[in-house]
Amino acid sequence: MRKLRLAALACVCAIGSAAAQPRATTDWPSYGRDAGAMRYSPLTQITPANVTGLKVAWTYHMKPADAVRTATSETTPLVVGNVMYVGSPYGRIVALDATSGQELWAYRLPGNDRPAPRGIAYWPGDRKYAPEIIFGTASGKLIAVNTKTGQAAEGFGAHGILNLKTPDVMRGYDKQYAETSPPAIFRNLVITGNSTPEEPKSVSGDIRAWDVRTGKQVWVFHGVPRAGELGYDTWAPGSTVDRSGVNVWNMFTVDVERGIAYIPFGDPAPDRWGGDRHGINLFGNSVVAVNAATGKYLWHFQLLHHAIWDWDSTTPPMLLDVKKDGKTIPALVAMNKSAYLFLLDRVTGEPIYPVTETPVPPSTVTGEQAWPTQPVPVTPPPLARQSFTAASDVTTITPQLHDFCEKLIADHKLHDSLPFSPLTMDSQIARFPGSGGGPEWGGGAFDPGLGYFIVNTQELGSIEQLEPKKGGYWGSTTGPDSFFEEEKPGHGYYPCQNPPWGDLWAVNVNTGKVAWRVNLGVSDIMPDGKQDTGRPNLGAPLTTASGLIFIGATDDSRFRAFDTRTGKEIWTWKMDASAHASPLTYRGTDGKQYVAVVATGGAFVHSPAVGDSVVVFSLP
After folding, report:
1. C-beta neighbour count of 103 within 10 angstroms
2. How far is Cα 262 from Cα 380, in angstroms, rounded to an integer?
3. Given this model, what pLDDT does residue 294 score?
4. What is the pTM of this model?
5. How many separate helices (H) and strands (E) can be counted in the chain?
6. Sign of the C-alpha dihedral computed for residues 224, 228, 233 and 234 taken in this order
């Protein structure tokens, strides 16, 4: 049963007194810490001067004794009032004492369902209702759990569970509808997206808001416009009917003060061919601003016209301030997997730095009409490789890898690629960035003192070609993980272009210029002197007021700290598994600052999950 908030308030006040700081300073209550996803903590106990003293304070193993195999997780735990909440890939939500790691309660999802792999959300409650953990599931449910009892919130949906697979979004299709990321919370609303199949006609990617107390739908926003709605005429006649995609499988952000929600829409389906959907296809690959209370459209910015590259707008649209020409501009950082970074005025949607509509290569695929131009920011430059030339770009890091890659290129008859090169139907291309992206779902972090936006990217290419698919459309013959060799099982990928293969960037948002770039990750199997290559990575960084960046993400099983001002790596911890998740930091009731990350491995092909832990660090 839901309980009144009076007792909960007393509990939070007591914990806040013990921590000697207000809850907003000590906690990590959402994926990005704040609703705008800056991933910045004001805590300063751990500094560049003492970070080398960090040790493991405690570890929580998520895998239950009866689990048959180890499961992958990309989740970021939440910490509120010295309680850590974790969405486990083994079908549980657990509450832990954030200082000691002791389990307080566990909620098991019904059946074989699992929480969204990238995390959960926290609703602080109101005068009537106690706080709750809100999360989506692999089967398309939305569940509310009382944080004090660990039991389902009875007043929400049916016994705490809401079925998101309603007739209006399923449209008669018996297809996948899953929640893969935490929802957004605004006042008493919970905002949800979903993942959809890669088929032209299937389930809807509509965005919906629900009353967090009852589970009743409050508003809906159509990613694919209906007749009479803005953007409908950007689609060929008839092509919007039952169109799938244009969904949000990642995270929203909210400007709480202004009451604006920002929706990072992905591509229309299918995502590599648009011959049946001529036009720029709003709101595909766009950031759309809506009134968070009503869902009413405010503005949009399209990062990619007529998307045919599988470069979804995956990163959470981060909200920050830009100081330019003596003015402070409320801004938004928008990125998709192409690795172009757009800085927008978050009130108007206008670019803060110039964006040029740039001519791009046409398509030769039957029926396709690639859009002739794409928006390209004048500054900063793209934060990942955009092209490949076989004659000059094949790696020389070792003779063995060079020979493997030369043979790979010859066997596949790969042709060179330019920025925005479309796929073809009669040959294969080494495409950069590949479908795995430059930046990915984790997004970045921000240091407001320096004005530095910090983001990790990867340099993974795809070998791809289009072929006819059942249903009358064209699709890719291969996935994103093609243009490299896996040297030995468990040792990761070795791309066919010269390093870097993974990067950590700092962009000064006040100038639009790159402040620094460093390699992120090492290739242990490479010869001495050649291991500093950078590595494929998934998961975001965090920043602290003391001038530190913490990040896992890489497939080399390291957790690292960097100096925010210089990009110098100053602390590294080798873990049992790679942390393909985004870390958090908080203060415990003992006064210590803790840094935590989930480490399970398993995010990349041929890289099985080998861990099951929430690993928590502190100074001795």
Report:
1. 13
2. 22
3. 98
4. 0.95
5. 5, 40
6. negative
